[in-house]
Amino acid sequence: MNKIKTIFETGAPGRCAVMPEPLDVPDVSLPEVFQRDTPLALTELSEMDVVRHFTRLSRRNFGVDSHFYPLGSCTMKYNPKISESVASLPGFASLHPGLTLVPAYRETCQGALEVVYELERLLAEIAGMAAGCLQPMAGAHGELTGVLLIAAYHRSKNDMKRDTILIPDSAHGTNPASAAMAGFKTVTLPSNAQGSVDYDAYAALMGEHVAGVMLTCPNTHGLFEPHVAEIAALAHEHGALMYYDGANLNAILGKCRPGDLGFDVMHYNLHKTFGTPHGMGGPGSGAIAVGERLAPFLPNPRVVKNDGIYDLHFGDSSIGRMAPFFGNFLVALRAYVYILAVGGEGLKKISENAVLNANYVLARLKEHWRPAFDGLCMHECLLTAADMTADHGIRALDVAKALLDRGFHAPTVYFPLTVKEGLMIEPTETESQETLDDFCDAMLEIARSAIEDPESLHHAPVSLPVGRLNEAQAARNLDCAALPQNKS
Amino acid sequence: MDWTTITEVEKRDIFKTVGVEAMEELFAAIPESLRLDSWDMPEGKNESALLREFKALSQRNNAEQVCFMGGGYYDHYIPAAVDALAGRSEFYTAYTPYQPECSQGTLQAIYEYQSLICRLMDMECANASLYDGGTAIFEAAVMAARITKRQRVIVHDSVHPLWKQMLETHAAGSVLKIETGSEPISEETACVIVQNPAFLGTLQDYADLAQQCHELGALLVMAVNPVSLGIVRTPGSMGADITVAEGQSLGLPLGFGGPYLGILATKKKYIRKMPGRIVGAAADDKGRPGYVLTLQAREQHIRREKALSNICSNQALCALRALIHLCLLGKEGLRETAYACHAKTAYLMSKLDFVQVLNDGPVFNEFAVRLPKNAEVVAAALLEKGFLAGIPLHTLGCGKPNDLLVAVTEKRTRDELDSFAAVLQEACHE
């Protein structure tokens, strides 16, 4: 397949797809000192040029609408189109957020304020906590917000000795990175042979220096933490707070709630659990929920309801502002549509089907691909290619690339870091049995190829515009921008 | 309604394969004592009822007024092709390009976005985007501290008050020491953060400030309005080391506050200290060109607590919209759009000779006026006439109660400008 020329190699001088309307006011000049004094080296394209270029680029992507996308920990479920329709209604899409700054304007955005208020309320209920907040713009941003809240809580008690956050070795990398960003030291909790937090090791690390514990439950091994309640109880006994990483919430909706498990704060990934599009890596939403203890510190402003009218309130103990307004509002709106569509019973059914599908894949593959841990899994199953690597030289990466050739997106590979040659498969509840069967058949066929013709797998993928790209060389000979003097 | 697909018959078949008899066995790992008894959640609804209700809800918002409100977020025209192309599900239902071979569309688009941002700003490298303008300022401050191994960050008065608040909130636990614009630059200063045009719309020349920073080993971080760069001197030309921007005005709807686009660009020598995803050109073993995520050793999924930032995702779909938007406008279209914003702003200022303009120099697309009456009262009166008058400045903790910040984009017609001037005058003297 041919290379698609970059947009800078396309077009011709003098072309322009979109111009503003002809100027209907007098010409004025900008004083020279403020004028652009360098060439404006942008493109010159017709609308057709632009449309064809991006349409062709789009066809070089796998998306959920075109491909099964069992990317573990990412919950690549179907994104309902109704959410897109609602998010494009002009009353939401064209609404200036500055309206909320002015009390007199708030009557003009009551519908949007209702979305914020009601969704925050529903998120608190799903969490089993006291309040929600839509400001954080992604999961990692929610983590940072949560850790800043924990810091504010201890500071309010004049408890300045707590400088440490405990985080399991199986956690997402964002957990320690967020804790570090908020100024905390991080200490790693080891996993035991069953894939859960080693409780004794945890108890030994707990103390008055610990500000909080960040847990993912079910964890990234796809397992529910059996000692979660004891972990929370011990933390609270020592004055530390519990943070719930909501990345895997799709496993437990309506079955149990982080607040009831003993967590004080959590972030949602609205784009995972509530089906908003992942957009090639964003925008998502990292809305949070908090228990009573942390509610006074939530970011400002808060949407409140007084006599049926939505208004803003600025809390005195707030940590401040994490977003200019209410976070990625149009993403949150899609999640709100989703939650109202499925309702409480639907949420339960989602988790049931997500767990069912993951266990089906596990059951069909476990004889040929070794599970990292024994027993049933929750919403995702973690396999390892380590035996294949030892016996036939086939690595998780080879499996991933072979799947691409067979029309499937790859699972998450090499994560969590606790498992060698990991293949983390999260099918989600929106996949049908026949899709899961096709995928499992492909995995079993790859297992046979690994034994019979391992060489063929080393060359995968062969069906896509490019084969495996040399990442080391790309990092050595950096080319991150096509600049005028450096035409690609 | 829901979007699960497993039928009852399939469910029984799956149970058999898995070796369980009931759904509850799959959840046996959750201790009984922790199970949810009941919760207060609504019943589900079907699609047509939902659309009806959300249409009604959206109509409780009035997005129809003639908009003179800006403050970092502007009412620009978004060409139809932006929605048509960014609405392709091959883009919006994909995720982070962890598997580059099946994500070349995403990767090439981000490479082109990075390139276009550099060309627009006269910088040498850009990341794949951050959440928004405010978080981009925070990331730039952290980056400057890392490069200079210093902690003091001077935030100039020109910076958006909400972005200042966001910087302070984000930096609460970090080593950064945030100082106001009145502090002198010293050999302990990591960076000075400025904005052009300033929050109140006034154009600035920061070339001397850049030199002053560099003499003391500090960096200049400049926040810009990307549309202005069609005609306004670039941060690269003035000597900025890190440029950030709120990219909303490049094809993103106002959307009641987001999602928006955090732009961050810098000099090539700082690329390894730049946070966020970066796409680089690569080749496969047959020499075919392609693109990959590069320099990943800076990032949280590898470095964990030692990462440059905790950021994992970016705003790729928003970056794609900005890229498509800029490609549609192109060189001439962006220049003419910027010029129209400037000329229409100047025209409106000339019509508002009955109020005091607070800007002390040329402006780009926004200016502040001191009204003879309380700005909120005037704003409320103009709302009745179908105009969003702008932002009463004291609602953002700056200015006096009578001060109003007024924005003008290329979308405003001469008629709208004339009517606005007339009703504003009327409201001021009622």
Largest interface, C-beta within 8 A = A-B, 205 and 207 residues
- Structural domain tally of chain A: 2
Q: Which word captures the global form of chain B?
A: globular
- CATH first level of the largest domain in chain B: Alpha Beta
Class inferred from helices and paired strands of chain B: alpha/beta
Unreliable stretches of chain B: none
Q: What is the CATH level 1 assignment of the largest domain in chain A? A: Alpha Beta
Distance between the termini of chain A: 18 Å
The structural class of chain A is alpha/beta
Largest sheet of chain B: 7 strands, mixed
CATH homologous superfamily of the largest domain in chain B - what is it? Answer: Type I PLP-dependent aspartate aminotransferase-like (Major domain)
Please describe the biggest sheet of chain A, giving its number of strands, its sense, and whether it closes into a barrel: 7 strands, mixed
Helical content of chain A stands at 25-40%
